[in-house]
Amino acid sequence: MISRRHLGAGALGALALPRIVRAQTAWPGDRPVEVIVLANAGGPVDTMTRMIMPHVARRVPGMQVVVTNRAGAGGQIGLEAAFNAAPDGYTLGATSIPAQMSIPIERPARYRALDFTFIANIVDDANAFYVPGDSPIRSLADLIATAKARPGQLSCATTGIGSDDHIFLLAFEALSGIPPLVHVPFTGNAPLFGQLLGGHLDLAAINIHDGIAQMREGKLRALATAAPQRARWAPDVPTMRELGFDLVTGASRGILGPPGLPRPIAAKLETAFAGALADPVFLADAERQFMPLRPLIGAAYLQMAQETDAMVRDLWTKRPWKDR
Q: Facing residues of 124 across strands?
């Protein structure tokens, strides 16, 4: 569908605008709305999308939803597909910030991070440092001391170069003054956890809620989280601010549309997401999944994205991460 739209754009020319106008009046009509997830099935962005979208669809009469996964290049493939889709309401994207901002900073990309139509942020999952349960590193102070005593020897896994985990690691290195750790990027949590739990890595920078189940079983230990306050699912894990580091970072996951999404369609979606995010059934599902919610609708979501973009660009000037 996308390729036909792109191929036909130049040939149809003047016919394109009337088609979009008709889509505005009929939306959603009898066509399904595709939500492109920038990551593999089963990951946190995918899980969030498949949980929230049925609640959204019930609030838009006639809305049908199809979720598709377009993983690759750290999320770039899915983001480009959503950005370059026709702004007719039939293609949305499920994204993760700050990865959305870091990609076009570090390499050429066929999208502009702040030009999407920002509809609703759903999750804000703070970063954290995890070590194996039997690690001699038992606190953030231990980590700092060990990193300074063994420069260039500690390995730290993340879910990829330019990911929120990687940005968290770089920001902590800069704030703490420790020598750079040996960065080991993975393509997702599954392979990362296999290596971390197998004792092949010293620590990992991941999202706090990704490791809670293993922490409760004693397989992992969280040293600190970069959340504004302690996670209620992990009340014993201190925040970075409590330990003297003004660092708040994480993965903000939400839904956006291509640039130029007509305001009537965007408004319907914003209203539907606001209702879904207050739905007791969805809230109960999110609680069972340890899903930390941060509802931001429309302009509030865009403002958060703008602030994150400024932070990522500032970090890039101080500690560019393209090669590590």
A: 252
Question: DSSP readout, 203-238?
Answer: EEEEEGGGSHHHHHTTSEEEEEE-SSS--TT-TTSP
Beta-carbon contacts of residue 275 (< 8 Å; ≥ 6 apart): 55, 59
How confident is the model over 165-181, as pLDDT tens digits? 999 999 999 999 999 99
Contacts of 190 (CB under 8 A, 6+ apart): none
**pLDDT < 50 regions, the chain:** 1-24
Closest CA to 95 of 137, 145, 37, 153: 37
The half-sphere exposure of 148 on its side-chain side, counting CA atoms within 13 A, is 9
| Biggest CA pair distance of the chain | 68
Eight-class DSSP state of 72: -
The pLDDT of residue 221 is 97
Residue pLDDT, tens place only, 107-140: 999 999 999 999 999 999 999 999 999 999 999 9
CA 286 to chain centre: 16
Q: Given phi > 0 = left and psi -120 to 50 = alpha, else beta, which region is 60? A: beta
Distance of CA 32 to the CA centre of its chain: 24
Q: Which residues contact 252 (CB under 8 A, 6 or more apart)?
A: 96, 97, 98, 121, 123, 124, 125, 294, 304, 308
CA distance 312 to 233: 28
The per-residue pLDDT for 321 is 78
Predicted local distance difference test score (pLDDT) of residue 26: 84
Q: What is the pLDDT of residue 43?
A: 87
Burial of 136 (0-12, 13-18, 19+ CB in 10 A): exposed
Contact partners, residue 223, CB within 8 Å, separation at least 6: 128, 129, 130, 131, 137, 138, 139, 140, 142, 143, 203, 237
282 touches 51 (CB < 8 A):
yes
pTM: 0.85
Domains and CATH numbers, the chain: 2-124+250-318 (3.40.190.150), 125-225 (3.40.190.10)
Helix (H, G, I), strand (E, B) or coil at 126: strand
